[in-house]
């Protein structure tokens, strides 16, 4: 890059606020090229493939709307959508209040809380595959915890009954991701000015009152950020369900991402699998936009009255 | 609940400056026990399965079936670990290391360069579009594009190689890395860039001798976080490789579990072994990881 002659010094040294005059755009090219090749092109590719027939090995044959028709008329699709929605809603309901509580708890500055935070975070470090394998062993009706401890309540066929299997998926998801969302809430709580609490104390507000009138409204944007990550993230749970239940029992936990994998890589129907992938992208984008709309305009002050 | 409320009310509202300074921490101490007891319950929920994994991995098979699952083994054994290591885990370990290092270092370097360009070239249309594209990329799930990625990898004749896992891993690390890094490079005072420019430094030199040292904590964060994601990735190796010699750890765990499903202690030993390096990394880089994770979403 010796060709980049320094601009004539002293002509307008400071008027541009230190912005570069020399070309820097080339530095973005490697990242852009990689992302185009393995992010954007596949995104367009999946739309293209949804109008073809392909078994994953042979020739790709254009086939118009055949794949779309077969997927849209398949009762498996509404079922997969329903399962996905159920996982999304239940995992949101399980995670949000708990993350909020833990986040508020962790925002305290006591030393032992910092120590607890270190331990809380461990589940997020383990791979979903490892977690699924662990809980599968732990919940095994014959060799698992229930049998070993002799606790009848724990001795159920956890992964063999539809409702229980769904519950286990939600539990493991929460177990893994609550630490991450608590961390987001912890950051949010720490940004609330202490002066607001002091004012409330002078007015004689109790603890619950302070939580509902100050903490919760002040965390509005944090809640939206965390919920967006939860909701959009729940569309992509794949490893966990794949290893834990493989979509079963029957197809009780066969969510969209798993449905796509099974159609594409197990049944070798890449066309219909691509249709599911397109639906997955559309649902994700739609939800992200919806939640952003809910959040209102991003520039309004969160500190009104502070 | 009622006792709590009265407790808070009796808090001394005296406006002395010293008391005000300490008020913040005192408020939380008073609030302790709801949150406090809940905090310990959650600790139990997190630690019991982890404790169980660790102690069980040292039990013999017969011990596992006869003993109370929450009691540490009466005769601890390393037999399970020997079985795991003999099942070629050294190779899977090496494969995973190659994939993680081979994907994360290039990903962070090119993301850093792009972030620098995006911050320094503000106003250039090309860079504005590039930035928007990366932001949009945050919303593209890997699962949704895995079929075309598979097609591309086949056409590149890279199917069933470690490179097949590395290339898409790099691409999908870029959006979040750029988001975090641009936030940090923006915090570098403009005067510093200006004085580098006055000294006649090229942008390339400014990137490495000014921006690099100043954003090192953010670079650490991004590296650790992407390292974690790549180390644990399951979908890419599942779809893009097939032979056991190209297996990475999460995939190896899965097939090991399929093979030895009855030998629970051995399966759990494999879980411990694959998690060990990450736990070590976590012990070293915890602060960076935690602060950086929120920085990406918090700003």
UniProtKB/TrEMBL annotation, chain A:
Keyword Cell membrane: yes
Locations listed in the record: Cell membrane
Keyword check for Transport: yes
All residue ranges annotated as the ABC transmembrane type-1 domain in the record: 81-291
Topological category with respect to the lipid bilayer: Multi-pass membrane protein
GO CC entries: plasma membrane
Database matches in Pfam families: BPD_transp_1
Stretches that traverse the bilayer: 24-49, 80-106, 118-139, 164-185, 229-249, 269-291
Keywords: Cell membrane, Membrane, Transmembrane, Transmembrane helix, Transport
Chief subcellular location: membrane
Database matches in InterPro entries: ABC_transporter_permease (IPR051393), MetI-like (IPR000515), MetI-like_sf (IPR035906)
GO biological process: transmembrane transport
Membership in a protein family: Belongs to the binding-protein-dependent transport system permease family.
The protein's name: Carbohydrate ABC transporter membrane protein 1 (CUT1 family)
Native source organism of the sequence: Pseudosporangium ferrugineum
From TrEMBL, chain B:
Major site of localization recorded for this protein: membrane
Annotated compartments: Cell membrane
Keyword Glycoprotein: no
Annotated stretches, region: Disordered: 1-23
UniProt-listed SUPFAM superfamilies: MetI-like
Signal peptide start and end residues: none
Domain ABC transmembrane type-1, residue spans: 93-285
InterPro entries in the cross-refs: MetI-like, MetI-like_sf
A GO biological-process term: transmembrane transport
Gene Ontology CC entries for this record: plasma membrane
Coiled-coil residue windows: none
Protein family: Belongs to the binding-protein-dependent transport system permease family.
Name listed for the protein in its UniProt record: Carbohydrate ABC transporter membrane protein 2 (CUT1 family)
Organism of this sequence: Pseudosporangium ferrugineum
